[in-house]
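Curious: explain these tokens?
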Amino acid sequence: MAFWPQIPQGKGPAGIEDVRGHYAALFARFGAAPAAMDFTPGKLGAIPGEWVGAVGGDPSRTILYFHGGGFVAGSPESHRPLIGKLVQASGVGAFSVKYRLAPECFFPAAVRDGIDAYRALLAILAKKGGVPACPASTPNPSSAA
């Protein structure tokens, strides 16, 4: 398994803390987060996470970021280098969701947290002038007959 190259064949991680430790080490390879990037603890509705970049920016241009880790590992903190570089390159702020992890929280807790964060972001958009139309629902002028 490429994720744990130093573990002999047939031996998996000892437990969830071992998995999380290996995952954190894997993401440490991305280096440090951009020096000038702001990481501010916050919430979208009841869901905790971190605002990355300009806090209070244009909510219609917000990246809602879900770290990887198979719902058992990872966090906004472990993904700061990656999301910080994404925000820096795009010029768009982000909210990095700190969803609940298994095995401490049973399925579908993490999925529920993601949906709730998304709905909270949509509610913020609605209060500030409406939810932008989905590009797929916008007529394409070149396809008009």
